[in-house]
Structures are given as C-alpha cells and as structure tokens.
Amino acid sequence: MEKFKYLKKEVINKLPKTAGVYCFKGGKGFLYIGKATNLRERVKNHFLQPSYRDGLFLDKVKKIGYLKTDSEIEALILEANLIKKYQPKYNTMWRDDKNYFYVGITKDGFPRVFITHQIKTQNQSTKQSFMLGRAHKIMCSGSKLSPATAPPINYGRGLGGQATQNHNSKVKTLYLGPFVDGKSLKATLKVLRKVFPYRTCRILPKHPCLWYHLSRCPAPCLFKSKILEVPAIKEKLKKEVQRNVNSLSKIIGGKKAQVLKELKREMQKLSRAQNFEKAAKIRDQIKALEMVLAHAKVFEGFYPSQKINWLQIQKNLQKILKTKKNIARIEAYDISNIQGEAATGSMVTFINGFPDKSQYRKFRIKYAGKSRTRAKPGTRAELSAGQSRSELRSTSGLGAGLTPHRNEVSGAGPNDIAMLKECLIRRIKHSEWPYPDLILIDGGISQLNAARKSKIQNLKSKKIPLIALAKRKNELYIEGQKKPILLKSLSREIFNLILQLRDEAHRFAISYYRKLRKKALIDPE
Length: 525
What we know:
The protein contains 14 helices and 20 strands. The protein is an alpha+beta fold. The chain folds into three domains: 5-68, GIY-YIG endonuclease (3-Layer(aba) Sandwich); 97-253, no CATH class; 306-522, UvrC, RNAse H endonuclease domain (Nucleotidyltransferase, domain 5), CATH 3.30.420. The protein is globular.
C-alpha cells in the first residue's frame, strides 16, 4: 500500500487539487481519514468551517497526509481500506458496526449484489474470512463482524470480505467492506452496473424487469422460460453473470489494473479464435470501465464552483439582513406534533448552502403544559379549520419586537410557541456545538419573537440574526424589520435556499415524530 505524503498544517495550499484520500495525524497516530474530490479545498473546509466533530481534534493535528487517486471511485475504496487498517479515533468513535456499509455478493449460480449494514451469520462459531486473493481465519463473536476485529489489509490485495451463510437461506454470501459513506457506495455500484450488469432481486421474477431492458441486469430470470431450457444457453448465461460479478468484486477490492489486464487478455484470446463479435463486446466493456473510473462523480465533494456560488448567495443574504458579517452556517427549526402528542423539534444545519446531516439534531419536547386552555367562542384565538397560527399572526400587522395580543396565543390545543422556545433554549445551552450565523424559524411574527427571547438569554447567541417564514403567503419576517418580505420577490437562489431549509427542517421533524409515535403505539407504557 502506498504511504501518505505529509505536510505541515500551516502549508495547506501545497496540497494537490486532485481526488484522493487525506488524513489528520496527531502525536500518537491517526486522528481522522477522509476522501475528497479536491484534496486542497476539502482539507481547507475542515479548518475554515469546522463541524462539531472537527472541533474535537483540529487542535491536536500535527501534520496532514494525502494520497492522490485517479478517480473518486478509487478514493472511496482507498478510504475504506485505510480506515479499516488504521482505525482512526475520530472515524470509529462516531460509528458502531451497524453503521458501516458492506457489499454482499451471494455465492450461487446467479449471484445477487446488495448493500447491507450488518454481516449476517448462521451461528456464533469461528468463520472463514476471505480476502480477495488469500484467506484468513478470524474469530467472529456474535452475529456480525466488528471493523475493529477485522484483519488489516493491503490496498493492492483489496477489501476484506467474509464468507458467511444467511440466516434464512442456504446461500453463502461474500461481504466486502466496511465502507463509511453509504451514499457514495450506492453511486459507485450504480455506475459500475453499466459496465458489469448484475442481479439485485432477492427472488427471481417470472418475467424480466426494467433493469434487463436498460441493460443493467443479465436477467437470470429468463432461465424459467422455455428459451433457457437448453442447458448450453443456461450455462453460457451463468458464466457471463459470474464473470461480471467477479470483475465487480475485484474493482470494489481495488484491483482495477488486474481486471483490465484480464479483460484485455480475454479479448485477445477471442480475436485469435476469430470470435470477433465477443471480442468487440469485451473491447467496449474495457472502454466503458476506463471511462467510468476516470470520470464518474460518486460522492459529494467540496468544489471551487460551489464556493463561488455561495459567495454570491451570501452577498444577497447580507443585503437582505443588513449585515456585513459572514454567513456560512444556517440552522432551521421546526416543531411536529398532533394535539401535543409525541411532540418533537428539529434542527437542520446547512454549511455554505449545503445540508450537513452530521450536525442535524432532534429534540423530544419535555414541556409539561403542552395544551393550552380553550379559547372563548368568537375570539380571534378560535382558528378556522386548516388555518395555522402563523397565518393568523402574519395578518395581524404587528411589527418586529412587538408582542401579539393575549387572545392570539391562548387558543385551544398544543402550545407550539412554548415548544419552540424550549428547543432553542436547549440548543443554545450546547455551547460545544458551533453557533450559527443565521437562524430560520418555521412560523410568523409570534415564533420570531419567541426565538428572539430565547436567544437573548445567552451573550454569544444574542447577536445571531433571526428570520421566520410564514406558510400562507411565504412571507419572510426579519428580526429588526417591521414589514415582512414576500419570498417570491427575492432572488431565485435565496428563494430556493430558504424553502429548502424550511422543508428539510419539516421533513426531519416529521420523521422523528413518526418514529416516536410508532414506538408509543407498539409500547404504550
């Protein structure tokens, strides 16, 4: 395996702008290993826009190492190998073995390829673990293989895989991994499927599916038809499927050069046998593989173009908020409940206009008086069906900093404003989380005032600007400004950003609410 090239952290600008893997090293070993499309920009981003996790180890970094790769796919595979080999403290401390990803390949006539979190085994005895190229015996206690117990591997020999037997079937499965980034792993398999079609279905259907018609699956289900009753045709298809899966597993294991060499050798062999049709097919496969490995974009990196676009958006935001302060980290909040039951709050975080899910937070509302007293009939607090509280307040003509009429916040039902205040107060107490440059609230003037009262309780959060988005007309209330702004009157970039923040906070709150609600229904106590 290639060795990292090291630089002092003071000379980050000397890092290459290519794809690859980087590491932060302290006095006693590796602190963190990551991958990037652009090594220089990604490493810079750790220091310029540090996340909560970054803050735990950046002061311990003595030097920065890097390894260049020819493509993002190779960076993904190399990262997995290095994390498994070195077990960096701040990679492993955030995950248990359920959160790693593995590629499973069934070892039957027509192998199935799938992604899973856990390695399933039939019993808790010693298992045979296979490397792609050599075998090792390791002890595997329990029903899954912990990355910490897996044998160290070499990049040239590929990722570790464990041959196990599924609980519910007699089919053995080879597991390759672990991988850290599930989204990038899915994207990698998606592009490789164009070159090496494979099966993904658990049970073979009666008829070929859409993947077959898109040339992404060799359709072993065809052997159920009369066409493949001829043994010779069936064996031919089986060999093709197994060859594709074998090549795929080697690519995932980092053996790109070996796969290309084998394909070229087979193409030459077919040419000598004057089987030009098959030789041409493999030639096209070689070209497609080289193209995919060189140009496929499989993970979200930090691109210079993104930085330029964000600078333009930031200028527009500063103009709207009438501030000169930099705006990089934006937090959005939402409350989800039905009549106060299983009430939840969400906090989503965007960095430079992009969601950072590692910094999302969810709150289970602890507020005891979740229900208010019922309003008198005919008062403004008695809302019509389908009318939200924020809609009522947004039409009240109240300016920023003013308190709504008592009747407007004393209606029947759950006290959303008190819940919002609870979320913000609890969030502000977490000083170890970086404070945002801007806060977005889902609601109108009342929610904005509640947020303002919550943040002034802390000196550091007191100066964070606030905005609130009322749903009915998409009116944007800005702290310190009397009249709301119609969102549609703003630039398309700001319009999209604020809606995306609001919708993402709502989605995250709803997903947590549904989880708690489901748990309550299953276990009422």
